[in-house]
Amino acid sequence: MSVLIFADQSQGKIKKAAFEAVQYGAKLARQSGGTATAIVLGEVDNAELAALGNYGAQKVLHAADARLNDIDSGVAAKVIVAAANQEDAKIIIFSHNFDGRAIAPRVAARLQAGLVTGAIALPDTANGFVVKKTVFSGKAFANINITSDKKVISVMPNTFTPEKTDATATVMPFQAAVNDADFRVKVTSVQTVSGEVPLTEAETIVSGGRGLKGPENWGLVEDLAKALGAATACSRPVADSGWRPHHEHVGQTGLTVRPNLYIAIGISGAIQHLAGVNGSKVIVVINKDPEAPFFKAADYGIVGDAFEVVPKLTEAVKKLKQ
Amino acid sequence: MKILVCISKTPDTTAKIAFTDNNTKFSETGVQFIINPYDEWYALVRALELKETQGATVHLLTVGGADTEPVIRKALALGGDESFRINADSQDSYYIASQIAAHAKQQGYDLILTGKETINYNGSSIGGMIAELLDLPFISIAAKLELNGATATLNREIEGGEEIVQVNLPVVVSCQKGMAEARIPNMRGIMAAKSKPLTVVEPVETPTLTSIVSFEMPPAKAGVKLISPDNVEELVKLLHEEAKAL
Ligand SMILES: Cc1cc2nc3c(=O)[nH]c(=O)nc-3n(C[C@H](O)[C@H](O)[C@H](O)COP(=O)(O)OP(=O)(O)OC[C@H]3O[C@@H](n4cnc5c(N)ncnc54)[C@H](O)[C@@H]3O)c2cc1C
Ligand SMILES: Nc1ncnc2c1ncn2[C@@H]1O[C@H](COP(=O)(O)O)[C@@H](O)[C@H]1O
Questions:
Q1: Domain ranges of chain B
Q2: ipTM of the complex
């Protein structure tokens, strides 16, 4: 079966999550002897487009219309559906990132296609078309059968490590049949923390909680993060008190992250916090209270005072990285 | 101004997650149910704030069985004007969104608010589907919503930041933290909710496109390896050599 993958870009650069989605879609296409085609919206240079071939896309459709640089979910869905029809793709793959969450449901509704968001495994086709996803905020998994002819899946970011190959893709222009009236959402400004890895894409995250006592102590977290090349995050009360910006808040009501390594400093490990981080591959907890619930969810732990342990840890990491 | 808030019922955030019937059903034994936090704290409260500041009628809608009524009553107690329950039990997002869209088509709302996602099935799907079915613009995962006449200005979350967007009403918005401050219902609200209308509507014919086959619990963690605070080098070594995380 042919598979169409939406390869999300931001400011002309294909996102890491898009490579993961392309690889997922390519594996799926190969399983059933179909073609894996990626579609890219907006202005992106050719080298970036060709790189999609490295992750398994055989064909790349490029709708280079500058009006598509920012996402208007309605327009994006229209273009993606047109591409799916052209390619006769029965399966459409997204990343379960912010743009994926905006567009995938629209595409699914437009095609009357069953949708599973946040897939963490390739579909099991032995008995139907069963996709595994996390539910109950990471506390369990559900296996969901898509029974419709057309299917839409969005892939959980940071779940499938992109494996680069030498394969290349044929890049083709795609004429997006949209007119100005289709654009209903006007992006007036974009504010991103430049030069930092977005939390949802980070391989390593150092996160701080109320145990750090106040924003003036965040140097501790930042120094360790810097030594590790990691992004920084925090617990909800830390963001609520204004110690850290809201986009760093992880957990049930914040971001869900799945890094390789999550280091929690002075965070108790309330169930709502764990909900956002329990998909991390390795969890390290530093807490002075041996009874802190976080230790139950951790792989490695240090019972100790963060103000003593963390600077030493930063030095030890620097030594390793030398 | 007419606002619809989509309300779903979810287990409390601290509920014990377990399954019955050969892992095909969520075990409700001893579980307390709440309004999905995103629907309550952000979508509903923002709708109420808009009602207070510029006047609006706030409708609440849930797709679910009679067991969802206590949750709707609580939402009414917070300040909704009128509520609807579409009498159907389904986990399929296309089915749910189609029911909501059919209702909205009849009512004609200026603003349709949903939560960012339900905390039980984590779909993050219903809002976008409603928008597509009604051919409306959709702003996903918004942290801020201001109205100026028929124009809405919103902050939408993107990787590592946010974008500020403008859109003309009507629009569908999925809401997250930042939208509004949580409220608790007061006695007067709870009393008033008893007499507010809750209309039960029969579902429209719609296909179901997905079905849950089974649930699984994640494999148990092996248990934490504790390292002495005086030996952080050991931790770095384990992370490097054993966990291959450095
Ligand atoms: C519906 C709902 C949703 C929620 N959503 C979220 C969410 O998304 N994310 C989230 O994080 N929370 C969320 N919460 C809040 C959550 O329940 C906890 O209150 C919160 O996670 C606690 O944050 P904390 O661990 O930083 O603070 P605390 O619970 O106060 O823990 C501080 C920890 O620091 C340790 N400590 C203190 N001093 C030191 C030191 N010197 N060195 C080392 N350790 C030290 C203490 O032993 C303690 O374990 C939610 C709550 C509800 C009800
Ligand atoms: N059964 C339902 N009835 C009404 N609204 C719902 C229902 N399920 C989900 N929603 C709304 O859609 C949002 C997103 O849900 P989901 O796409 O299932 O994660 C929720 O926060 C609710 O606002």
A1: 2-214
A2: 0.94
Mutate to test the interface with A, among B21, B33, B125, B241 (most CBs of A within 10 A): B125
The Cβ of residue A141 has, within 10 Å, a number of other Cβ atoms equal to: 18
Q: In which residue ranges of chain A is pLDDT below 50?
A: none
Which among B193, B23, B44, B196 is positioned nearest to B111, based on CA atoms?
B44
Q: Which domains does chain A have, with CATH numbers?
A: 3-182 (3.40.50.620), 199-321 (3.40.50.1220)
B209 to chain A: closest CA residue? A114
Separation between Cα atoms, residue B176 and residue B231, nearest integer Å: 42
Q: What is the pLDDT of residue A241?
A: 96
* Residue B155 binned pLDDT confidence (cut-offs 50, 70, 90): very high
Q: Using a CB-CB distance cutoff of 8 angstroms, which residues of chain B are in contact with residue A109?
A: 94, 97, 128-129, 132-133
Residue B158 pairs in a beta bridge with B161
Cβ atoms within 10 Å, residue B8: 25
Q: Do A192 and B121 touch (CB under 8 A)?
A: no
Is B36 a pocket residue for ligand 2 (Cβ < 6 Å)?
yes
State pTM to two decimals: 0.94
Structure token digits, residue A126: 């032995």
The CATH number of domain B2-214 is 3.30.43.10? no
What is the SS3 assignment for A322? coil
Does A58 show up as a binding residue in the annotation? Answer: no
